[in-house]
Design goal:
mainly alpha; about 190 residues; globular
Length: about 190
């Protein structure tokens, strides 16, 4: 019981700090969650973290909240999920509440505008790092089907402008059929 409370507290503090100091949306926080929970704490291995991220991306809603749900649940069940969600949504809620109170002053302030413009470049760099890191993980596995799916998804979304939702649904269906066939053959652990 005491160990579980320690994990819940550490999970809450981690999610509060990630939610407070993460700018750029869900993909940025998901990367930082991987670094925190897989690389630093070693609570989740990297492959499992990628699976949890895939689940978070395929579920409707904000990816940061979805990521906190799956990671929190994996680490500490329903209490972990609730603590993780609270830690994720509390900082942006407070920050946006304060910003909305002073919106007029922020709207036309050249310093705030310049700062936000500069942050866009940093956010883009973090998202590119996520793509490279996740892509590298798939390439290291040397699973031809996974590489083919990654390349096909890129081509469909980037060159053919297919909506990402359709690509994700297609990948879910493909993965379900592939798993079903493997289970039928008895190849799934």
């Amino acid at each position: 019981m005491k160990r579980e409370k320690g994990i819940l507290l550490k999970l809450f503090i981690s999610m509060i700090s990630l939610g407070t100091f993460t700018f750029g949306g869900g993909y940025v926080i998901v990367t930082l969650m991987k670094k925190k929970f897989a690389d630093e704490y070693h609570w989740i291995d990297e492959k499992e973290m990628l699976d949890l991220i895939a689940i978070a991306q395929s579920a409707p809603g904000a990816i940061a909240v979805n990521g906190s749900i799956v990671v929190g649940y994996k680490l500490a069940g329903i209490p972990g999920m609730l603590v993780s969600i609270l830690g994720t949504i509390l900082p942006p809620f407070v920050i946006l509440s304060l910003v909305s109170m002073f919106y007029i002053a922020f709207r036309d302030n050249i310093w705030v505008h310049s700062m936000l413009t500069g942050m866009q470049a940093g956010v883009a760099a973090v998202i590119i790092a996520v793509v490279i890191e996740m892509g590298h993980g798939i390439l290291v596995e040397k699973n031809r089907v996974s590489v083919l799916i990654m390349v096909a998804a890129f081509i469909l979304t980037f060159f053919l402008n297919i909506n990402v939702v359709y690509v994700v649904i297609g990948c879910i269906v493909f993965g379900a059929v592939r798993t079903w066939r493997a289970m039928k053959k008895g190849a799934v652990q």
